[in-house]
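Exercise 7. Given the encoded structure of a 918-residue chain, write a plausible sequence.
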């Protein structure tokens, strides 16, 4: 096994070098030998600089980059940006390779594989019935969200997927020399195409672009992978010791999305974009089904002169509008031809404008996905009954699983809006019918009383006799589209509504009132409730009060009745991003953990099932990091068969850009859910001493973080001038504004650009600041406390994961490069004082982490990440130096197209090199 791992590691080095060479050849063929030589000279200087130990490690590289004219600089930036993406592709291929080697060696050594998790459960004495019961009620759902700092065009994403496929083909065993040459040529063509394709958008990203970007991963990965994941789990459960029956698993694994439904801070999402998102999703799934049906028809050439068919199958064949003489003895093809005609008619009904293949004739629509699934089941039963069970277990079974999961809507789309918007809308609705109500100014108890009284009535507040503000009309329009979607696609199309900045019980009741206005809730028919109301607790203060908020709302009968209508389950979303921006890395993690423990106890007492939705971003500062470790490190009882978490931006590409990665990541979520839900809870209970130590550490870290970010004079200006945040806000990146308002206050800045700005300047402050000084102060009061922290790291998964993610961020930080960003600022002396505090804290945090983990250097115990940094950072550092000089020119008034495009390209490249930056 060790030899196979070594081979895989060498293969990674080979792939990185191969892709780098092909890119250089493409540059030379397109731009000339001189261009290639400049690129290679910059890389040589960067490698030499990283080998030095002096803080002036880039003393030659920086001036060399600064002397380049804009056009040359742009060419070099493109080269290093694209190489960063190529390293990502090579590393993704490496991960798939390692997984294959583990499987081939018959040793599920990688934690997070389903086989490994089932072995752990069997060893713990978990019985088959417990697994069966869990999966019946389980929900495992990665939720794609648009990224306000998304930097890549869909065309570039498509080319990168082609490159990944080319690299994968070259990995196949037993290739002939001709096949190897052909696949190598394909790789060269794709690399040349990448170099000659503009990676910048000519306009700001629109919401519809974000929708299409998200859907592109369904074609490349998700349509294929989800049926495979179900099949793999079913096969595992049929084996020893579980001996599950042949019944198919319920569709507990489903995809979610916010793209087109997330209005929080994005004025461009409205009823129209919601309707278009639903249409595009439906169009994509119908296109997939029609293609799979056509392929299935080609496969099922079975002749009724040689095989028997069931009466039900014969009926489908007889009812088919296909009258082809050639197929009169091929009942399966006739049946499928008729099904294709019905599905094509259904697709057109749902708004699909083009079909790849036209049906043989007109046919009635399917009234529901269940009706389509029933016809597929008829084919399967006939095959099984007549000796063709192996055929039924192939393409047909995969299509059946897909229909179970995707329906006619493809993906469950969540709606999200800020609680302040709801409050303003409800205030206006009351004022229109009862002037002087003054809802916004009421005390919380009075708001609850007014809302609960209102929820007893079926009389609507909205009337056609009144005129409403644009904001209120927009909100009602979105909710009316949601109600229409339920009629058109079913409730699964829009099952959830998230309330951002939830901080009071009235926030939840306001949404119930708005639902009533559009028919999503009817007081006289409480069982008709159709959308989960999900509060999102984000700030530190909101997390601390979240238990009381939920306790209060659960005591309101109208809300309890609403929950019962939805199956007696309450989902709560936890915000990693804003809690971090508000309180820093350590305090955010700890307050989230405590909130989870409080919810578990509360909902257990109330007899209501709890489901947690984790708002995790790509960066560690926004809750990022390995999903398996994060889920299994949650408090005992926090999963209970249900896990939803957000996937954003470049993380979506990192996890779902190819089928091998997609399958691996979905299996990780399932494996972590099984383990966290079914392993004995006493194995997950932390030592009370650990809890006490974390409470003290968190208080100290919170003080250090708040002192710097919110109490230091000039810090806000430091952030805007020592990072690229101002330029990010102006470039054609995401559809969403960087701030929720026009102010520059940190409180109003969205968490994603907050993290993204620090990442670009290589300070990475949200992922570590406050930890070092907290540990120093804590050890002063606990002189013998280091062994306790070491035990926490060894024995407590929560603390272990927190430290591992922070170590990754520290390793990606570069204070020498950060210092050059600080020197850009007009008030450099004042800003250098702030930077000195940041640098001192970084050194203290690094020292504390090394002491706790008993390492001599960062990543000593993580050779894979260390190797990744070794590959990518020689190409990342030059991008930072070039960005710094471009910022200087840009801020000095050089606003020509070359300078602006080059600056934008550095943002692309640095984001790609860091990979989890926003």
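Solution.
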């Amino acid at each position: 096994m060790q030899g196979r791992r070594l081979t895989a590691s060498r293969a990674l080095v080979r792939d990185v070098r191969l892709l780098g060479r092909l890119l250089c050849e493409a540059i030379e063929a397109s731009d000339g030998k001189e261009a290639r030589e400049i690129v290679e000279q910059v890389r040589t200087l960067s490698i030499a600089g990283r080998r030095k130990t002096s803080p002036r490690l880039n003393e030659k590289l920086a001036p060399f980059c600064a002397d380049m004219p804009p056009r040359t600089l742009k060419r070099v930036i493109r080269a290093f940006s694209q190489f960063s993406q190529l390293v990502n592709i090579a590393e993704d291929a490496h991960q798939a390779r390692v997984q294959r080697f583990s499987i081939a060696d018959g040793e599920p050594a990688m934690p997070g594989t389903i086989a490994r998790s089932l072995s752990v459960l069997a060893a713990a004495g978990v019985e088959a019935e417990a697994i069966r019961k869990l999966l019946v009620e389980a929900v495992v759902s990665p939720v794609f969200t648009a990224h306000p700092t998304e930097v890549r065009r869909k065309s570039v994403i498509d080319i990168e997927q082609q490159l990944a496929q080319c690299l994968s083909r070259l990995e196949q065993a037993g290739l002939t020399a001709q096949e190897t040459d052909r696949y190598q040529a394909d790789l060269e063509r794709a690399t040349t195409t990448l170099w000659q394709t503009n990676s910048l958008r000519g306009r700001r990203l629109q919401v519809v672009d974000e929708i299409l970007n998200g859907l592109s991963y369904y074609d490349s990965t998700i349509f294929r992978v989800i049926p495979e994941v179900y099949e793999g789990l079913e096969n595992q459960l049929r084996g020893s010791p579980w001996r599950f029956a042949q019944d198919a698993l319920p569709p507990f694994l489903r995809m979610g999305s916010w793209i087109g439904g997330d209005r929080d801070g994005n004025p461009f999402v409205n009823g129209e974009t919601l309707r278009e998102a639903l249409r595009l999703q439906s169009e994509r799934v119908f296109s997939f089904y029609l293609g799979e049906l056509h392929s299935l028809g080609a496969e099922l050439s079975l002749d009724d002169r040689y095989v028997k068919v069931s009466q039900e199958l014969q009926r489908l064949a007889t009812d088919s509008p296909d009258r082809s003489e050639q197929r009169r003895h091929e009942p399966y093809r006739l049946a499928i031809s008729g099904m294709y005609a019905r599905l094509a008619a259904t697709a057109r009904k749902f708004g699909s404008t083009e079909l790849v293949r036209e049906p043989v004739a007109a046919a009635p629509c399917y009234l529901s996905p269940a009706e389509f699934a029933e016809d597929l089941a008829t084919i399967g039963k006939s095959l099984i009954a007549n000796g063709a069970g192996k055929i039924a277990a192939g393409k047909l079974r995969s299509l059946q699983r897909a229909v179970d999961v995707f329906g006619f809507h493809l993906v469950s789309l969540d709606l999200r809006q800020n609680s302040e918007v709801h409050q303003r809308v409800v205030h206006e609705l009351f004022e229109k019918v009862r002037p002087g109500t003054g809802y916004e100014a009421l005390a919380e108890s009075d708001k609850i009383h007014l809302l609960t009284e209102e929820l007893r009535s079926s009389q609507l507040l909205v009337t056609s006799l009144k005129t409403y503000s644009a904001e209120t009309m927009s909100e009602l329009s979105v909710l009316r589209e949601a109600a229409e979607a339920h009629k058109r696609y079913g409730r699964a199309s829009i099952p959830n509504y998230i309330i951002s900045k939830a901080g009071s019980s009235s926030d939840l009741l306001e949404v119930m009132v708005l639902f009533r206005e559009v028919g999503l809730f009817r007081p006289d028919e409480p069982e008709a409730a159709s959308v989960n109301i999900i509060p999102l607790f984000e700030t530190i203060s909101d997390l601390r009060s979240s238990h009381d908020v939920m306790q209060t709302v659960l005591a309101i009968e109208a809300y309890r009745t609403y929950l019962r209508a939805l199956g007696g389950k309450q989902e709560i979303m936890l915000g990693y991003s804003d809690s971090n921006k508000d309180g820093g890395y350590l305090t955010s993690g700890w307050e989230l953990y405590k909130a989870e423990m409080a919810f578990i106890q509360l909902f257990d007492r109330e007899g209501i099932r709890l489901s947690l939705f984790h708002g995790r971003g790509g960066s560690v500062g926004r809750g990022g990091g390995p999903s398996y470790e994060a889920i299994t490190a949650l408090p005992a009882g926090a999963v209970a068969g249900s896990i939803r978490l957000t996937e954003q931006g470049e993380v979506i590409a990192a996890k779902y850009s190819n089928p091998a990665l997609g399958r691996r990541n979905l299996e990780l979520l399932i494996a972590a859910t099984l383990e966290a839900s079914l392993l004995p809870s006493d194995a997950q209970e932390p030592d009370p001493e650990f809890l006490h130590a974390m409470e003290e550490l968190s208080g100290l870290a919170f003080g250090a973080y708040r002192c710097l970010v919110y109490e230091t004079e000039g810090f806000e200006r430091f952030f805007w001038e020592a990072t690229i945040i101002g330029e990010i806000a102006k470039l054609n990146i995401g559809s969403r504004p960087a701030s929720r308002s026009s102010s520059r206050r940190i409180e109003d800045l969205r968490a994603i650009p907050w993290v993204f700005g620090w990442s670009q300047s290589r300070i990475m402050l949200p992922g570590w600041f406050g930890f070092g000084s907290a540990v120093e102060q804590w050890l002063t009061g606990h002189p013998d406390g280091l062994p306790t922290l070491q035990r926490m790291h060894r024995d407590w998964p929560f603390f272990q994961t927190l430290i591992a993610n922070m170590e990754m961020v520290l390793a990606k930080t570069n204070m020498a490069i950060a210092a050059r960003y600080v020197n850009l600022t007009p008030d450099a002396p004042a800003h250098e004082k702030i930077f000195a505090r940041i640098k001192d804290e970084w050194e203290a945090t690094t020292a504390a982490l090394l002491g706790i983990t008993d390492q001599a250097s960062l990543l000593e115990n993580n050779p894979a990440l260390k190797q990744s940094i070794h590959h990518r950072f020689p190409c990342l550092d030059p991008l930072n130096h070039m960005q710094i000089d471009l910022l200087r020119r840009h801020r000095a008034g050089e606003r020509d197209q070359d300078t602006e495009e080059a600056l934008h390209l550095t943002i692309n490249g640095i984001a790609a090199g860091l990979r989890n930056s926003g």
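Remark. The two ends are 36 Å apart (CA to CA). Students should compare their own answers with the one above.
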